[in-house]
Write a structure and sequence with these properties.
about 280 residues; about 45% helix; alpha/beta; 10 strands
Length: about 280
């Protein structure tokens, strides 16, 4: 095992990190994550040309805002992929988006929010879906918002540059050829897709009322990291952010049942979404 400074992560250090991450973003790190915490702190310290002991000393100072953000970035999970869970995108293509578009025909507006967007694969998948199957909704005001607590993930998402490994995960070859250009070993999204969404750093534990209302919210594989009271708090805010006929997608292992009231459940193929009652 590597060391943190001159010794392994102490119980007091782990307790501090657990309390810090919970206070910053509500995520629970149990004691089984000790090695993960050590590894990610070590990697961060190495990038900063310092030690993990020094990182933990400095992060205790509220004025070290940038470093505190870096620690949150390091200790939060950014797992994502293009068209993750095909059943969701099939439900959007064949069922939900046609219904929303028909309901909004008079106003010609569509608002979609990818919450916890990580490095952007989800929102860009939605952009490609709209272009491929709905011609990009010409003449409509389409607002695609993607948010994440990680400043580094949001910065990467805005660039629209992905590695060969990332485009190999879930992205059909025809869409890769059509919407990306190769740059050395990476792939750059063409501007037609890259400029469709807007990105914002956002903590889901904050006040979401200022975000306005959405026709579609995707908050997938996020709630699994929170304890029940915070799950309920986030779901209540997301419910308040839905338009009357708007829909919320959660991860396949997530549910509102026995967590938050005021939702109705709809099954579309193999996918499930929720609407405000």
């Amino acid at each position: 095992m590597f060391v943190v400074g001159d010794s392994a992560l102490t119980v007091a250090d782990l307790t501090f990190v657990q309390q810090f991450i919970f206070a910053e973003c509500g995520i629970v790190l149990d004691t089984t994550k000790k090695y993960l915490v050590e590894t990610r702190l070590y990697d961060l310290a190495r990038r900063l040309n310092t030690t993990s002991t020094e990182v933990l000393r400095r992060v205790r100072t509220p004025s070290e805002k940038m470093l505190r953000n870096d620690v949150v970035d390091a200790l939060t999970t950014h797992e994502t992929s293009f068209f993750r869970d095909q059943s969701v995108f099939e439900a959007l293509r064949t069922d939900l988006l046609p219904k929303i578009i028909a309901a909004n025909a008079a106003s010609k507006t569509l608002r979609i929010w990818s919450a916890a967007c990580s490095t952007g694969q989800e929102v860009y998948s939605i952009c490609m879906l709209l272009q491929e199957h709905f011609r990009g909704l010409p003449g409509w005001k389409v607002d695609l918002l993607a948010t994440d607590i990680s400043t580094q993930a949001v910065a990467r998402a805005q660039q629209g540059i992905f590695s060969q490994l990332e485009v190999n995960r879930g992205l059909p070859a025809q869409l890769l050829v059509k919407h990306f250009t190769q740059n050395c070993r990476d792939w750059q999204l063409k501007d037609q897709i890259r400029t469709m969404p807007r990105f914002q750093v956002l903590n889901l534990l904050g006040n979401l009322k200022t975000m306005g209302s959405f026709d579609l919210i995707l908050c997938r594989n996020v709630l699994i990291y929170f304890e029940l009271p915070l799950k309920k708090q986030i779901l209540e805010q997301l419910r308040g952010s839905l338009n009357p006929k708007g829909a919320l997608f959660l991860g396949s292992a997530e549910t509102v049942i026995n967590v938050c009231e005021g939702f109705s459940r709809t099954q579309s193929g193999k996918a499930v979404y929720y609407q405000a009652e």
